[in-house]
Amino acid sequence: MTRPRLCILLLLLALAWPALPALAQEFGLLDGDEAGAGNASQKTPAAPAAMVQEEELVVLAAPEKVGLGEPFLVRLTANRALGEVAVYWRGKEVIPSISVWNDRHVALAMLGTDVLTDRPGSLDLVVTAGLDSGKKTFRRRVAVRPKEYATQALNLPEPMVTPPEEVLSRIARERAEVARVLSEVSPKRRWSLPLKRPVAGQATSVYGLRRILNGRPKNPHRGLDFRAAEGLAVAAAADGVAVLVADHYYSGKSLYLDHGNGVLSMYFHLSEALVSQGQRVSRGQPVGLAGMTGRATGPHLHFGVSVQGRLVDPEPLLRFGAEKLLAE
Question: What is the residue range of 303's domain?
Answer without folding.
Answer: 151-326
